[in-house]
Design goal:
The chain is mostly helical and 155 residues long. The chain has two domains: 87 residues; 58 residues. Helices cover 59% and strands 0% of the residues. The protein is globular, with a radius of gyration of 20 Å.
Length: 155
């Protein structure tokens, strides 16, 4: 039980600190101090990330041994998975820039009613959500089926 508490505590810290990876140019209030640590004091996030990944991997190996020894049932494992999901859904997807590019393509297509194969997100004036994209200067990279699928979350 104590190991699960430590695990969830580490995940919560991970979810909070992940918001420091938001681009400094993004217009999200309340994360300036995290940005300062992540972007300008690189030793801290490096140590934090390395320790976090190491501890989480060690916990994973420990859980596998507990399952193999019969101490954990599949019901307990599902509780751990669901708890992990509930916590990490609030983390910033720092290494998932493609998601934001897909959202931008859908926004160009369905909100602004422009052709995403001709108009780049950066061509849309006065939209703050396009300022921190990594691929704001590119047209849509995928075919029409993908663009049609992006309509599902838009609706």
């Amino acid at each position: 039980m104590a190991m699960n508490f430590i695990y969830y505590f580490i995940l919560i810290i991970f979810a909070i600190l992940s918001w420091g990876f938001v681009e400094p140019s993004a217009s999200l209030p309340g994360i300036r101090s995290l940005n300062q640590i992540i972007y300008f004091q690189t030793l801290y996030p490096t140590v934090w990330y390395t320790v976090t990944i190491t501890v989480l991997f060690a916990w994973y190996v420990w859980i596998l041994h507990r399952i193999k020894a019969g101490f954990l049932t599949s019901k307990n494992v599902w509780y751990l998975i669901m708890g992990t999901t509930v916590i990490l859904v609030w983390a910033y997807p720092a290494l998932s820039n493609d998601i934001f590019n897909y959202i931008a393509t859908a926004k160009v297509t369905f909100l602004y009613r422009e052709n995403p194969y001709i108009v780049m997100p950066i061509d849309i004036p006065n939209d703050a959500s396009f300022t921190s994209l990594h691929a704001a200067n590119k047209v849509a990279l995928y075919g029409p089926v993908w663009i049609a699928l992006t309509a599902i979350p838009h609706v």
